[in-house]
Amino acid sequence: MSVFVCITTRDGKPDFATLHSAEEACRFYGDAKVGTTRNAHNVCVSRNMGVAKMLEHGFDHILFLDNDVTIEPNAIHNLVKLDANVATGCVPTTICEGGRLATFLSVAQSVDSKTNAITWQRHWFDGVRDTEACGAACLLIKREVFDDLEFPWFRWPEFYEGGQYHFFSEDIDFCNRVLAAGLGPIRAHGQVRCGHSRGVNVADLIKEEADEWGSHQGVLRKIGKHATGIKRVVEYGCGTYSTPLFLDRAIFAHVESVEAFEHDAKWARAVEERCRSSRLSITQCPLGEMRFKTAEAADLVFIDCGAVTLAPGKIDYSERALLFRGHEHSNAVVVLHDVHEPQLAQAFHNSAYNSKTIFAGRGPHTAVASNSFDVSVLNN
After folding, report:
1. CA-wise closest residue to 317 among 357, 358, 288, 296
2. Distance CA 357, CA 321 (A)
3. pTM, whole model, 2 decimals?
4. 162-190 residue pLDDT tens
5. Looking at domain 209-379, what is its CATH homologous superfamily?
6. pLDDT digits over 88-115, tens only?
7. Minimal CA–CA distance to 17: which of 189, 140, 194, 192?
8. Architecture of domain 3-196 in this structure
């Protein structure tokens, strides 16, 4: 079963992390190809263009990926294996809800039959579930579905009620039409757990400084704002978001060097090309060797605990715990990013956390970093 992986973009330029993860998944699956569609103003146009490409080139499925979503190498395989007309992965999104951060997944837990109000799934789940609605950020669709739906396949329907116009989003409307045509059930795979780099309502986070902990970008900006003594940064797992932030003089005014360690050579080259800074050095080495590579004391240590896989479907949490233990008794600010998997809690169980240890993960399994974190300790 061939798959066209369609990354919907505004400008035709896919995010590197999204493209990299899609290419890895295509290599793991075998019979799959990545492409992009472009429309700056209407995602429905982008999605319909993707379907047209899929039909024109004879693919059996289309997998939509939003341009800020990453997938694991086995994601395509797991979704195709369901043999459903429509199947979705789980994409987390964090919002500001009553002054507190709340995370939900792109899978409906229930839909009110009278009001169409959706209650979204709040926690990761195992196995496979049927759902009445889902987002299209990681959505696999069989080509036969489009034979039974009228064009445009994706649209923004509107209706007039209570003296004003209302709109359905294109993904919810698509789900409604799929079920109405008897093409259900829509299946959600609990083990296809996606990353969502812009899955935070940034405007809401800016309003309340305590909620800046919703992503590692907010964490690092807040550290840069309050920590004046950070000159040397060590980063385990470089990134297209974190590494440029460390080198940004407007955020980290006094940083003299950023020493990054990365196991993926292609990713390391891409980050180095993007940053182009004499203050940055990136060493490519296996994860298990990283803790032996740095000798000098760092002022800030950033450990990416999340989505980097050593083999399809495998993340080595114990190695990340060992990386942290090399710094747990130092005076460095230590940021543990992406602590969203339950296995990490067990791996870090015997670690000693000092007052400068910051948990930057977000997700249904963890607190969204400490909103009560005392910024005064950063300069102690």
Report:
1. 288
2. 13
3. 0.58
4. 655 556 688 999 999 999 999 999 999 99
5. Vaccinia Virus protein VP39 (3.40.50.150)
6. 999 887 655 554 556 788 999 988 877 6
7. 194
8. Alpha-Beta Complex (3.90)
